[in-house]
Amino acid sequence: MEIWKEFSFEAAHRLPNVPPEHKCARLHGHSYRVRLTVRGELDPQLGWVVDFDTIREAFEPVRAQLDHYYLNEIEGLSNPTSELLARWIWARTKPRLPQLARVEVMETCTSGARYEGA
Ligand SMILES: Nc1nc2c(c(=O)[nH]1)N=C([C@H](O)[C@H](O)COP(=O)(O)OP(=O)(O)OP(=O)(O)O)CN2
Ligand SMILES: [Zn+2]
């Protein structure tokens, strides 16, 4: 079974590798949303896969590195596209949450990226 929990953080970024006339070459910000999906067996006694709070505890130190920062200044995020941000979050969260199955990053209401470890 899969369960998920959603988070949000505010951050600024620009995309350094797009043409200078591209809108994302300019500094701008997003209210990012992150959905973490965990896959596992249902505990018959507790009736859940993992406590939602376990997901929150695993992600919070990672979220704290992003919230209200300029993403381009963070190590490993010099080109902070949704795709690379999803991979960055996976690399830092998976060791803390081994059941993690999917990271989804929603940069706007209509755009996002999904990463499942490959
Ligand atoms: N594949 C990707 N394309 C784009 C990314 C990205 O990370 N991966 N990022 C951007 C920009 O950061 C931009 O801020 C978001 O793009 P977009 O969805 O075009 O944003 P809009 O709010 O302008 O979109 P609407 O068309 O108004 O829905 C660009 N591309
Ligand atoms: Zn953007």
TrEMBL record:
GO terms (BP aspect) = tRNA queuosine(34) biosynthetic process
The terms under GO molecular function for this entry are:
6-carboxytetrahydropterin synthase activity; metal ion binding
**Is Lyase among this UniProt entry's keywords?**
yes
* Record: active site: 24, 68, 107
User: Which chemical reaction does it catalyze?
Assistant: 7,8-dihydroneopterin 3'-triphosphate + H2O = 6-carboxy-5,6,7,8-tetrahydropterin + triphosphate + acetaldehyde + 2 H(+)
Q: Which InterPro entries match?
A: 6-PTP_synth/QueD, 6-PTP_synth/QueD_sf
Its name, as the record gives it, is 6-carboxy-5,6,7,8-tetrahydropterin synthase
Q: Which organism is it from?
A: Sandaracinus amylolyticus
